[in-house]
Amino acid sequence: MVKLSNARVNFNPKLLKKLTQKENSGVEVHTTVQHLAIYPHQLNNFNDSVKGLLNAKIAKYNKTFNGILLGYKNIKLLKDGGVIQDDSYYIHFDLQADFYIFKPEIGKIMEGVVKRKSKDHIGALVYEAFNVSIPLTSDDDEEELGNTVKVGDTVTFQIIYINLTSRLPYIRGRLMSETTETETNEISEIKIKKRKNKSKTETTETETNETTETKVKKKKSKTKEKKVEEMEDD
């Protein structure tokens, strides 16, 4: 989902759209206006300059949205030209766009992939970008569940603390459940078996149709030979 390009984080637009439709994903889309300022020489390649300014804000906390900017689409300038204020050499303008924002909330249930594990702690990653710290308490159920978790598993956790304004966003959660790699592989194997059975059925049907066609052809050929014999007898 996430790609690093020149030390910049890129989130897949198609996946962002899906996440906005998924419950408890923490990802929202907002259509709103943003104010930007560029240097005069950036007018030579205006589109790239605007995208460069917006891209620099991705994966960082945005005060306007009270969340982390993940991406954007449908950029539209509200006016044809910009404005120079007082003696400033910046050119100011407003644009409207659809912005994808990551806004996790305390109490929400989310999923993450386990990247690190110790006796009393699990480190998970959400959307391959955001770290989640999951302390393991002395609670019997939670301790037992924590013992079964392995690196690479997908775990479900409840958010109990958030700090998105720090240089590295911090999320702390409480372990709820886990989905192991074994279960995922079993699901994949079931799908493969179903696909094979379907292919086998289709092959059998094809063979049956071919056999039927062969019988019909033989029957027609036999009838034709019989007619030829009758004509010769006449």
UniProtKB/TrEMBL annotation:
Alphabetically ordered keywords of this record: DNA-directed RNA polymerase, Nucleus, Phosphoprotein, Transcription
Source organism superkingdom: Eukaryota
Record domain RPA43 OB: where: 104-217
GO cellular component, one term: RNA polymerase I complex
Compositional bias of kind Basic residues: 216-225
Protein localization: Nucleus, Nucleolus
Pfam families from the UniProt entry: RPA43_OB, SHS2_Rpb7-N
Heme keyword on record: no
Region listing for Disordered, in residue ranges: 194-234
Domain RNA polymerase Rpb7-like N-terminal positions: 35-87
GO-annotated biological processes: DNA-templated transcription initiation; transcription elongation by RNA polymerase I
Family: Belongs to the eukaryotic RPA43 RNA polymerase subunit family.
Protein's name in the database: DNA-directed RNA polymerase I subunit RPA43-like
Species assigned in the record: Diabrotica virgifera virgifera
Organism classification: Eukaryota, Metazoa, Ecdysozoa, Arthropoda, Hexapoda
